[in-house]
Amino acid sequence: MKCVLLNPPLSSPFSPPLGLVSLGTYLRRQGIDVTLVDASIEALHYRLAPHRLLPAAERGAALLQRRVPWEPALPACDRLSNRANPAAAMQAVHGILPTIWSRDAFELDPARHDEQLETIHDALILSTAEAQPAALGLGGYDEARASFAPGSDPFLDYYREVLVPAVVEAAPDVVGVSIGYERQVAFAATIIAELRRKLSGVPIITGGSLVSALCINLRPSSGRTVPLRVGTPTCANLLASMIDTAAVDGEGEAPMAAICRAIAPGRSLDGIAGVVRVDHAAQTIRFGPPSPPLAGEALPSLDLEGLPIGRKYLGRVRAAPLMTSRGCYWNRCAFCDHAVPLDRRFRELPIETLLESLTTYRRTYGIEFVSFCDEAMPPRMISKVADAISRERLGIRFGTMARFERGLAEIIPRAAEGGLAFLSLGLESASPRVRGLMRKGIEPQSIEETLEACARHGVRVECHVMFGFPGETTEEAEQTIGFLADNAGRIEALAANQWVLTPQSPIARDPAAFGVVLEAAGPTAGDRPGYRLEHGIGFEESRSFVRSLHEHLTLQNKIVRSYRNEEYFALRTIGT
User: Fold this and answer.
1) 3-state DSSP: the chain helix, strand, coil percent, rounded to 5?
2) Is 353's pLDDT higher than 80?
3) Which of 41, 111, 390, 503 has its CA 20 to 30 A from that of 340?
4) Is pLDDT above 50 for 523?
5) Residues 6 or more apart in contact with residue 148 via CB below 8 angstroms
């Protein structure tokens, strides 16, 4: 049984996606011959070849330069590193790109890393500027739903000249396509269409966190089918557009292994737990029975076989993802449904399994930084990981999500000695009253103690904040901005977002208890939410607070946006 697993553009350019690594490793342990293809970084490398990119970039720079001074900046121009001067950006691309691109790798200089990333970002924008307004940058398009026109995928040549021939040559019995983010949907659709033209009888299975989130939102409380509405922008239609042969609902390991076992003797996929299919004749989506989540003990240690580690990823040092748990041990925040695609039950992996992964990462692949992708890692697990790294003298630095909670500050000194370098923490609001409404369960003393301990021991901090939570006042939103400004010296990065109602969150299950009034059934078009708040700042005002951080003199360079994601900030100080 041969399986090819693909990650479509565009995910983080700094390390491979955890879903691809986890699923590939699990299937190999089940005796399946697995080929991993991170088509995101491979497509990026292909497009950035100077002989392919420079002519298109020159045309894009000329287009942007021609606008007259009194016209507003075109969207692509507004996203360039040098917003006012496309010609200067093009000059930098000419000078720098040929020095960092080679046939088999990117060759980045850690001392010039930021400059080189800006050049790659600008090169992509300039080379796709003719597709205004949807010019492509290193972090994707400027908006999640922005995309290319049909038939003009900027990576189409890569699919046809490299990806599809390689998949055909591998002669797979099944192909899996992982879609983790909305920005990957259109790229995935093109890849699936191109594969289907050459692999007429091979099942193509989609999965990933975005597919799972849609499945969870649509899964019927009774029965097994959901109707499609032709011509209307519904979640069901979006999910159906991602499904070729079938999709996986929830964690992918057990369903994908069962799919492979069914395909080998030619059995039907119907009835397999966690499998979702489209019945085009009946215009419905059919859900199989839910797949039980795997226990932590059933998950294997990971490897990175087949991925271009040390060659094509754009991190300052070699980086890779890992997880110590699935689910969320707190699982009470009123706004959150992040843990739902991985099942709400909290399951930790044995420290022995984690240590085996870390050892393989370091000694086989030279990994220097590990991004733990947990919803939140408890302080005791942070200590266990740091102690294991120190005991085995692995020399790995790591970062993780965590909570401002009692006990975290106390473990930071020893954890920092064991490799802890970056903590991503959910502050959400500087107002204790708003945090209480959110059910965050954190106290001002824990926030201060954690920030102080991190500053003292060299652990960089990212803070997550949100504006517009039901009941939040203008004064409380301003209090959050004031807190961030006052603590700018102790905060490396900021993830600032509007509160939005997510379908599986506690608020969605009981909106009236939070002063939320639903105004529309199902998804709504455009930017208008399908609800209103009885108290607190509204949708537009909360958006203005987010924008104000992007313009704040002290804070604007700390904002997570475009390719400057959490991993970028975590890696920025490693190895310098």
Assistant:
1) 45, 15, 40
2) yes
3) 41
4) no
5) 128, 131, 134, 136, 154, 186
Inform me whether the pLDDT recorded for 344 exceeds 70. no
Q: Pinpoint the residues of the chain covered by CATH 3.40.50.280.
A: 2-44+153-287
**CATH fourth-level superfamily of 2-44+153-287:** Cobalamin-binding domain (3.40.50.280)
Q: Alpha-carbon distance 10 to 141, whole Å?
A: 9
Residue-wise pLDDT tens digits, 428-448: 999 999 999 999 999 999 999
Q: Which residues pair with 398 in a beta bridge?
A: 370, 420
Mean pLDDT of the chain: 90
The two counts, helices (H) then strands (E), for the chain are 21, 20
Chain Cα centroid distance, residue 129: 25
Separation CA 559–CA 450 (nearest Å): 21
Q: In the structure encoding, which two tokens stand for residue 447, read together?
A: 């926030």
The CATH superfamily of 316-572 is tm_1862 like domain (3.80.30.20)
- pLDDT of amino acid 576: 53
Euclidean distance between CA atoms 313 and 563, whole angstroms: 13
The neighbour count for residue 414, using CB atoms within 10 Å, is 15
Q: Where in the chain is the domain with CATH 3.80.30.20?
A: 316-572
CA 248 to chain CA mean position, Å: 18
d(CA 164, CA 161): 7
Task: Please tell me whether the peptide bond between 36 and the residue prior to it is cis, using omega within 30 degrees of 0.
Answer: no
